[in-house]
């Protein structure tokens, strides 16, 4: 004899809520199979548990209730295979995007840790840096000629590049500018190069450059008007320490969180160095 279950019993049997079963019934996915003619009460059957299991399996694939309803109306395994393949591609994109976001979240957290450990602004200091990879773009602006507005225009061009290439916008959390080694050595402070830090997940490889691992001489600040002055100071400290540059000058934005009302962001300028032979 068929055993019938009230909605509460069916919910408890399958570890779901009665609201969930009502939602499935509303969406024509799983409706009570039996109705008592005398009372009008509707009941589920034990055999419907298998369909409920299938609904949950499909939901675990992040398919919507509408998509699941469409699957239940299919007439061939081939159609189902196509839908599952397309959902697999969609999930791969979501996983990639989440992985990128996780990496950039870790970078933001790391930058905040660096921020808390910085020496006083304007004080040169040495630090060891692991190898880093950046995507570099030439822009039509020069921060040292056009001040903060020029910098904003430079990074907007980098942002536009990410958008046009359909690259994850979360890479934009850590941007900066570059002065070539030759210009830094000659104290010609000019830059039209903007960059973003990237990782192994970054799909666009054409313009990538490597910032080598090694010892860097650095200065941090929260005032863009002081970058030229601090760049000279960095050069003077390098000479005072009997060192020479080993690569390009990099200005890296550490945070754009407005911890103070008059603070746009905190940045760090840095140059790889070694002792003169």
Features:
277 residues; alpha+beta; Multidrug-efflux Transporter Regulator, Chain: A, Domain 2; 2 domains; 9-stranded antiparallel sheet; 8 helices
Give an overview of the whole structure:
The protein is an alpha+beta fold and 277 residues long. The model has no long low-confidence stretch (mean pLDDT 90). It folds into two domains: 4-73, Multidrug-efflux Transporter Regulator, Chain: A, Domain 2; 106-275, Multidrug-efflux Transporter 1 Regulator Bmrr, Chain A. The termini are far apart. A hairpin with a 6-residue loop joins β2 (34-35) and β3. The strands form two sheets. Strands 4, 5, 6, 7, 8, 9, 10, 11 and 12 form a nine-stranded antiparallel beta sheet that branches. The chain is 43% helix and 23% strand. The relative contact order is 0.11. The radius of gyration is 30 Å and the shape is elongated.
How is this fold's topology laid out?
Layout lengths: L3 E2 L1 H7 L4 H9 L7 E2 L6 E4 L3 H12 L4 H8 L4 H41 L7 E5 L2 E7 L4 H22 L10 E5 L1 H5 L7 E6 L9 E4 L2 E8 L5 H14 L2 E3 L3 E7 L10 E10 L2
Antiparallel strand pairs: 1-3, 2-3, 4-9, 5-7, 5-8, 6-7, 6-11, 9-12, 10-12, 11-12
Which word captures the global form?
A: elongated
Strand element count: 12
Tell me the name of the CATH homologous superfamily of the largest domain: Regulatory factor, effector binding domain
Query: Looking at CATH, which topology of the largest domain would you report?
Result: Multidrug-efflux Transporter 1 Regulator Bmrr, Chain A
> Which radius of gyration do the C-alpha atoms yield?
30 Å
> What is the CATH architecture assignment of the largest domain?
Alpha-Beta Barrel
Largest sheet: 9 strands, antiparallel
Please report which band the strand proportion falls in: under 5%, 5-15%, 15-25%, 25-35%, 35-45% or over 45%: 15-25%
What is the helix fraction of residues, given as a range? 40-55%
**Number of separate structural domains:** 2
């Amino acid at each position: 004899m068929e055993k019938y279950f009230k909605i509460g019993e069916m919910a408890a049997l399958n570890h779901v809520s009665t609201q969930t079963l009502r939602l499935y019934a509303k969406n024509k996915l799983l409706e009570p199979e039996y109705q008592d003619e005398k009372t009008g009460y509707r009941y589920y059957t034990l055999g419907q548990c298998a369909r409920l299991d299938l609904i949950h399996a499909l939901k675990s694939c992040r398919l919507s209730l509408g998509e699941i309803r469409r699957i239940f109306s299919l007439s061939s395994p081939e159609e189902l295979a196509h839908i599952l393949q397309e959902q697999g591609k969609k999930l791969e994109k979501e996983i990639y995007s989440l992985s990128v976001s996780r990496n950039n979240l870790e970078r933001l957290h790391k930058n905040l840790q660096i921020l808390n450990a910085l020496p006083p602004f304007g004080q040169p200091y040495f630090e060891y840096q692991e190898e880093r990879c950046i995507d570099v773009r030439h822009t039509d602006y020069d921060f040292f000629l056009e001040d903060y507005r020029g910098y904003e225009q430079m990074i907007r061009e980098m942002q536009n590049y990410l958008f046009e290439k359909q690259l994850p916008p979360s890479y934009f959390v850590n941007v900066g500018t570059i002065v070539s080694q030759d210009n830094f050595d000659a104290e010609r402070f000019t830059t039209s190069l903007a960059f973003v830090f990237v990782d192994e997940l970054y799909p666009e490889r054409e313009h990538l450059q490597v910032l080598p691992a090694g010892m860097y001489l650095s200065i941090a600040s929260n005032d863009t008007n002081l970058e030229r002055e601090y760049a000279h100071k960095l050069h003077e400290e390098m000479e005072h320490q009997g060192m020479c540059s080993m690569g390009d000058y990099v200005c890296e934005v550490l945070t754009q969180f407005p911890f103070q009302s008059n603070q746009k962001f905190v940045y760090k300028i840095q140059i790889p160095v070694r002792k003169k032979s």
